[in-house]
Amino acid sequence: MTGLTPRRTQANSRRRGRPPRTESADTRDRILAAAREEFSERGYEKTSVRGIAKAAGVDSALVHHYFGTKEQMFEAAIEVAFAPALNAPNAVADGPLDEVGERLTRFVFGVWENPTTRAPLLAIVRSAVNNETAAAVFRHLVASQLLRRIASQLKLPDAELRAELAAAQLVGCAMLRYVIKVEPLASADLEQIVARVAPVVQGHLTAP
Q1: pLDDT value at position 24?
Q2: What's the burial of 162, exposed, middle or buried (CB within 10 Å: 0-12/13-18/19+)?
Q3: What distance lies between CA 94 and its chain's CA centroid?
Q4: Which of 6, 26, 81, 190 is such that its CA lies 20 to 30 A from the CA of 197?
């Protein structure tokens, strides 16, 4: 009997933290929601898997079970938060090419103007600015899920470079307006901004 105890203990240890069969289907979503909240409030560096687990009301091992490392947890969290912006390629495709600059500009600023979508974006940007690991995750998401998809819609020479230059214009303006809040840009009328920025974005995307 004594010889069986270590094996039982080891087996129990392996199972520890894993969801029981009766675990509700929303456990993963609860962890993900807690992660988004933690990353938003604390940033990447100050957020821990243990803190996420505590906020979600689960064991830390359960967080690892569903998402793996802290980096993978961050990637999953920002992908959900960044989801509204990932529809930008549709704005490129939905209409004539000579109006793509205005469509894309309006779409991007529309995401930032909406308080519901702006809050998670601010958290993502702040984490990416302050931590290289977070920045690498964000770069991968933007490149694979956004810029390459926009480039594929253009069907023009140097499409990826064009998409990156257009994104740089829009992200730079968004950073100054919504993150750093430089005046008078921060309080300028949105239509005025679109009227000035859209032709520049159009030039990046379609000019010879």
Answers
A1: 58
A2: buried
A3: 23
A4: 81
Using the structure block, give the residue that is written with the tokens 């004539």.
96
In the prediction, which pLDDT does 4 show? Answer: 46
What are the phi and psi torsion angles at 17 (to 5°)? 90, -15
Q: Could you tell me the pTM of the whole model?
A: 0.68
pLDDT at position 86 = 67
> What is the mean pLDDT, run by run of 10 residues, along the chain of 208 residues?
45 46 69 84 85 91 88 81 70 76 88 81 76 78 75 82 89 88 94 95 89
Please give the Cα distance from 104 to 151 (Å, whole number).
13
DSSP 101-139: HHHHHHHHHHHHHSHHHHHHHHHHHHHHHH-HHHHHHHH
The pLDDT of residue 14: 41
The answer to whether the CB of 47 falls within 8 A of the CB of 135 is no
Helices 190-206 and 100-113, axial angle in degrees (round to 10): 130
DSSP state of 19: P
User: How is residue 176 written in tokens?
Assistant: 């100054």
What residue has token string 């992908």?
79
Measuring CA to CA, how many Å separate 103 from each of 149, 182, 186, 193, 201? Answer: 16, 24, 21, 13, 10
- Give the Cα separation of 59 and 53 in Å (integer): 6
Nearest-angstrom CA–CA distance, 157 and 18? 50
Gap between the Cα atoms of 53 and 66, Å rounded = 11
Answer for the pair 52, 27: CB distance below 8 angstroms, yes or no: no
